[in-house]
Recover the amino acids of this structure.
């Protein structure tokens, strides 16, 4: 037969665009528009102020003026309120108010948006390019919008958020801050009118989307492809826009049989769940996210009200909490739908945090603050970790999730890998400690699907685990900047419920999906897929270094929190001082908020990072105050072992070496700094090992031209690392002394930047320490410091949450090569058969480590200055510290890491520690001590095994805790264990005397121990 259908899909596109979509809304009347632009500082005002219901203090009263169609509104980041009046007329059928605020069709949630209010301040819904209407009459209309005479008044809060990530992407712009001098093209009000809505033509458009989309995805070898094309061709033949309503009805009748053909028996099954991935801050400031939530949630609620089959999910307790605080009426509606299982809180974390940079205790608190919020507000505890967008996931997360009572883990980000393809979508993820968690990567490989045939087909073809699993999850709805699902997505979802050639699509909660998918996996037998270790993302490696103030603020706050909680617990336990629960909660929530996956990684606009720097400063001050309070209560004593500098009688001797070199020697280490300020020898005199390989130089500063292909603040590309420029210039060089310590200070210049390295041999510590002060004026340059070591190893140990991850030093395979820049916490350690070496740092997170002949080179990343989205990132002064510890094993590195990061508590005299581990075998540490979150006064002690081996220990308490103190093990939320956790326990849930308790810890095992004094009645 001739191919008469060769242009059917092209014809469909044209007819749909020009003759169907424009007929869905038919103009029925104009409206009267007035506008008022918020003056003063231009920051948002309350709806009550804008609506004239109440006055915001210090704000100019709203003054609405007539506003013509086509006029420009809104400077960057300003807010304009529109007042819109009209009369609906008497004709029957659905009627919409349709608005075009100046949309870019390609960007939902990434530029201007609106939120519609009634005159009494009730929120109606959000507006964006794909949701530009308000239903005034007919199905889905909010009751009461029209008066008895058909008139209405609505207000629109329009936010002039600039389009920062446009086409082409990653264009440098200053509009990430308010008040930029760069010209700004204002938005224009292009459309404001009443329009009759045709359900029939809308339904035809949805039918054709599904039929055409499916035909395009199916191979021409399949009969179904041709049946769909024929039906589409015939439907287009009968659709005549001259009588569009009747044409739509006839066309739909032709399409009905092909859209009624059921799916194959073995069709893949998809659980579709409405969602709006909402970045807590990114290309907009934190305050805008609060408004984005109102827009997105009100849209989602309108859709849930209109379509009883749909389910919507939202993560991040912080977001719910903002809604509760700023939009209580919306929050009540959310709660109503939560109770009915249709609005589902997921994730159980405070925010969708970065997955690798926060310390272990921070991840614990993400989970405990998140879960407690959901339990307190909704009586529900999410059982999945929901991190679709974070930039890699530490190997500690399976254990932490499971110990917080979660069962499942979700992300899709690993599909962004630039080098290798991850082998699974549904699998057991096994952490560094051996804990497994059911894990699913939605195979549509997006967290913002639109429920198209292409996405569904992609999900089926991509899904790696077809042999053992038949389900996958599809989070659909516009994301990043919010927006969420639309009625068109919902319509397609219904059409794909049971359709030949497509997977079966069901609207259900994530928990329903996880339960069924986990059951399937448990049935996988010998094909059971397991992935062990961290989920390293082969992309966005620059996020470990960008906006260094975020990393430093976070690390310092974590270290201060550790000291503040420990000292407050000591002051409370030993001196009956009140424990500052409320202050600590508020501080923790602030620190957790800033661990969001675009703030801590340094990938937000300048505005976000400026505010974050101020916030970190304020939080650090508050923590210093809490530490002062606690130490005052303790009588000026500190409770070791938080920071312990061992007094030593050693003194560094300084002598002149050859060719202007300086030799530093304290009897343990002997360091030679050459005339150019480089370390050419570091001799460990205890075993006679030379650390610096022949011809190499330690502390060499290397500069790289850092011009990413894409995603500037996110990516360090491999091409960047190929051509280091060594900074050899010496502006000054001098020998320095400080008590028994001595060192060499070298000042180097590059461009307009100055780098001062102050290299200390700390007498008697076995530590060669460097303080680095940088006045950084470079852009698009990466600065690293190289530490070569004469250690022949195949892997290096990078500290991560509660342990380390071993990464390859070789680049034999593609995945090994792809780890060319990776995350570390406080140390990197390398070792050969008889010698180890550790490098500890105070605030850095990015490093690379590679074998170099019989040696190893570790390079710490200090600074980079991408130009998008913040063109002035990292300009200014910075300070870093690192130390090289020759001969250090992992326990030594861990102890040094604590000491190196502990806040300076000098001047306080030590007292006996509150709790102490007596190690019997192996190595474990007390990582954290605090009071229980339930304000009972119990102590909570977090310990973990540090080396990846086994450790046993006894716990000793301060004598004032009393000999009768009892101890038992809990989950991370400090709850009694039920015995069903299926997790290794260090002591178990039985209450026993502390002195009788023996802790047994497996590799990297974390234990949460609760200690109560005086003894309770139920001691066994
Ligand atoms: Zn995100």
């Amino acid at each position: 037969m001739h191919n008469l259908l060769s242009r059917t899909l092209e014809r469909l596109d044209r007819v749909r665009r020009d003759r169907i979509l424009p007929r869905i809304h038919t103009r029925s009347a104009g409206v009267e528009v007035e506008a008022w632009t918020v003056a003063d500082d231009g920051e948002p005002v309350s709806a009550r102020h804008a609506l004239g219901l109440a006055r915001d203090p210090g704000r100019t009263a709203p003054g609405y003026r007539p506003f013509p169609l086509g006029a420009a509104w809104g400077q960057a980041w300003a807010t304009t309120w529109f007042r819109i009046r009209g009369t609906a007329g008497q004709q029957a059928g659905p009627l919409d108010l349709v608005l075009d605020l100046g949309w870019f069709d390609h960007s939902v949630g990434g530029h201007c948006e609106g939120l519609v209010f009634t005159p009494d301040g009730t929120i109606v819904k959000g507006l964006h390019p794909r949701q530009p209407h308000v239903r005034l009459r007919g199905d889905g209309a909010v009751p009461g919008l029209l008066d008895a005479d058909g008139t209405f008044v609505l207000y629109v809060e329009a936010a002039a958020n600039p389009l920062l990530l446009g086409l082409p992407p990653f264009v440098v712009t200053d509009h990430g801050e308010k008040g930029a001098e760069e010209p700004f093209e204002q938005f224009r009000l292009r459309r404001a009118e009443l329009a009759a809505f045709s359900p029939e033509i809308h339904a035809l458009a949805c039918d054709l989307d599904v039929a055409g989309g499916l035909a395009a995805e199916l191979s021409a070898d399949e009969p179904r492809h041709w049946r769909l094309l024929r039906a589409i061709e015939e439907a287009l033949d009968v659709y005549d826009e001259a009588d569009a309503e009747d044409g739509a009805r006839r066309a739909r009748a032709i399409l009905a049989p092909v859209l009624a053909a059921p799916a194959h028996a073995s069709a893949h099954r998809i659980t579709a769940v409405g969602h709006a991935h909402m970045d807590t801050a990114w290309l907009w400031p934190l305050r805008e996210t609060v408004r984005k939530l109102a827009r997105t949630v009100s849209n989602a609620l309108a859709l849930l009200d209109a379509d009883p089959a749909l389910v919507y999910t939202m993560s991040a307790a912080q977001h719910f909490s903002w809604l509760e605080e700023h939009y209580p009426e919306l929050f009540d509606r959310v709660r109503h739908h939560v109770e009915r299982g249709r609005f589902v809180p997921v994730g159980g974390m405070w925010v969708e945090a970065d997955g690798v940079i926060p310390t272990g205790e921070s991840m614990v608190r993400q989970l405990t603050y998140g879960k407690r919020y959901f339990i307190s507000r909704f009586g529900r505890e999410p059982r999945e970790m929901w991190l679709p967008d974070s930039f890699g996931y530490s190997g500690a997360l399976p254990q932490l999730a499971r110990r917080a009572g979660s069962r499942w883990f979700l992300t899709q980000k690993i599909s962004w890998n630039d080098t290798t393809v991850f082998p699974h979508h549904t699998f057991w993820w096994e952490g560094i400690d051996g804990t497994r968690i059911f894990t699913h990567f939605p195979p549509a490989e997006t967290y913002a699907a639109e429920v198209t045939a292409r996405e569904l087909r992609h999900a089926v073809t991509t899904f790696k685990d077809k042999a053992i699993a038949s389900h996958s999850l599809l989070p659909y709805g516009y994301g990043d900047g919010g927006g969420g699902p639309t009625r068109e997505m919902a319509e397609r979802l219904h059409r794909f419920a049971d359709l030949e050639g497509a997977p079966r699509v069901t609207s259900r909660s994530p928990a329903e999906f996880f339960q069924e998918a986990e059951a399937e996996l448990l049935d996988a037998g010998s094909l059971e897929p397991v992935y062990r270790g961290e989920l390293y993302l082969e992309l966005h490696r620059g996020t470990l270094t960008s906006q260094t103030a975020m990393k430093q603020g976070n690390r310092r706050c974590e270290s201060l929190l550790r000291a503040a909680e420990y000292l407050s617990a000591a002051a409370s336990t030993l001196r009956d001082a009140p424990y500052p629960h409320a202050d600590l909660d508020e501080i923790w929530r602030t620190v957790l908020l800033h661990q969001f996956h675009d703030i801590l990684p340094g990938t937000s606009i300048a505005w976000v990072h400026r505010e974050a720097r101020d916030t970190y400063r304020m939080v650090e001050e508050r923590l210093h105050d809490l530490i002062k309070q606690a130490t005052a209560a303790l009588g000026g004593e500190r409770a070791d072992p938080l920071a312990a500098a061992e007094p030593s009688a050693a003194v560094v001797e300084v002598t002149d070496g050859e060719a202007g070199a300086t030799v530093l020697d304290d009897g343990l280490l002997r360091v030679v700094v050459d005339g150019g300020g480089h370390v050419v020898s570091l001799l460990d005199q205890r075993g006679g090992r030379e650390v610096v390989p022949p011809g190499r130089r330690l502390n060499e500063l290397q500069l790289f031209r850092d011009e990413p292909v894409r995603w500037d603040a996110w990516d360090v590309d491999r091409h960047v690392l190929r051509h280091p420029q060594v900074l050899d210039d010496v502006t000054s060089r001098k020998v320095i002394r400080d008590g028994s310590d001595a060192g060499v200070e070298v000042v180097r210049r590059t461009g307009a930047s100055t780098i001062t390295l102050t290299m200390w041999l700390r007498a008697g510590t076995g530590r060669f320490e460097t303080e680095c002060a940088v006045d950084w004026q470079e852009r698009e340059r990466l600065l690293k410091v190289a530490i070569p070591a004469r250690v022949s190893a195949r892997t290096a140990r990078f500290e991560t949450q509660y342990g380390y991850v071993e990464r390859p030093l070789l680049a034999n395979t593609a995945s090994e090569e792809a780890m060319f820049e990776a995350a570390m916490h406080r140390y990197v350690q390398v070792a050969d058969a008889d010698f180890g070496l550790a490098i500890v740092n105070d605030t850095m997170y990015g490093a690379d480590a590679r074998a170099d002949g019989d040696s190893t080179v570790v390079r710490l990343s200090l600074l980079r200055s991408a130009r998008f989205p913040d063109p002035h990132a990292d300009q200014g002064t910075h300070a870093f510290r690192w130390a090289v510890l020759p001969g250090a094993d992992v326990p030594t590195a861990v102890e040094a890491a604590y000491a190196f990061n502990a806040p300076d508590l000098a001047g306080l005299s030590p007292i006996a520690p509150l709790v102490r581990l007596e190690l019997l075998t192996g190595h474990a540490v007390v990582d954290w001590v605090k009071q229980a979150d339930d304000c009972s006064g119990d102590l909570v002690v977090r310990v973990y095994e540090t080396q990846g081996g086994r450790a046993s220990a006894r716990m000793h308490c301060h004598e004032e805790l009393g000999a009768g103190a009892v101890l038992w093990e809990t989950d991370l939320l400090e709850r009694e264990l039920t015995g069903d956790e299926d997790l290794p326990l260090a002591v178990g849930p039985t209450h026993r005397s502390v002195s009788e308790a023996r802790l047994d810890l497996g590799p990297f095992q974390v234990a949460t121990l609760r200690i109560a004094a005086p003894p309770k009645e139920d001691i066994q």
Observations:
- The first helix runs from residue 8 to 24.
- The chain is about 25% helix and 30% strand.
- Residues 277, 279, 389, 480, 597 surround zinc ion (CB under 6 Å).
